[in-house]
Here is the input.
Amino acid sequence: MRVADTNQHYDLDPAIFGSFLDPLRKYSCGLYQAHDDTLETAQLRKLRFVADRLGLRGGERVLDVGCGWGSLVLFLARELGCSVVGVSPAPHQVAYVTGRAAQLGLAGRVQVQQGHFETVDLGRGGFDAVTMLGSIVHMPDLAGAYRKARVLVRRGGMLYVSESCFRNAALRERFSGESADIFVRDGIFGWGDMRPLSELVRAAEEAGLSMVSLDDLTDHYRRTISDWLANVRSHQETIDGTYPGMAARLVRYLETANAGWGYTTKHYALVCRAAR
Amino acid sequence: MSSHTHEEILATVTEIVAAELGVPAAELPPLRDLREVEGADSVKILRSVAKIERRYDIEMDDDDVFSLRCLDDAAAVIAKTLAQGRA
Here is the structure.
């Protein structure tokens, strides 16, 4: 299956995502500390976490692969004065992020390219950091994705990958054919492969990268999705008004994801450096 | 916590699983294969396991979690796990 098919979910009307994500529309795991943290607080903390893990101090050039609705791109440009290139295959996302950058007066520091990371021309590279939050899962050629990221990052630069993974190879073998997994993978996204962490580490090693840190974010993703589920349920009419039946499909997808955390799946953040 | 009898555990497990699958407890005799229950799927069964683990404050072996067939199995695994002091 071609990567192009992964557009189907992410290219839905952005208003759908505005109804259940946080105000920055960050469609990935948050980072919670207190029991009463809101989704918005957790997502903002996670953006700072990514910047911290990458050692960003301000003004760097960053590439965000699979930039979604631009939460990280706009955060790095606005809060840290970074020059950021975002990549997304979904036209709705590209238009949304470009528009937000202009509204925020960040057009000079934000550029968004539409296309698939594997084939899009990103010029000379030389990025201080490359980020991939939940995007490698949709790329069939894992080794190729890591190699391309390695080429695009400068010597000594950093790569941040956070991804949902089957807990091990045996569980992936057993559950990737289950109806619940097929529904999420094919029915919602079009294509995805939740490779075990060991495969991500191996691909990073083979691309010549050095491991810097590994964080287990599984419990944080469970709580993030619980917050999304509550929002989907309270905005069901709005969601179904745009796409009839979509709220129920979102609930099934999110409940499936949350049932598996810890048992069949994990969510990790893996940070590497392009250095010997 | 060795005071739990098999019958007590079975009653608790039946209540949790029936609520998760959305069926009356009477439809879940101890030896019925859960995958044959209408509306049951791996997601609902995993959610049941999570609730059971929270209720008893235990962590079952993976092999047991993924091979549960019926409520009687579940009760036996819980009793074994409690006896091993894995609470």
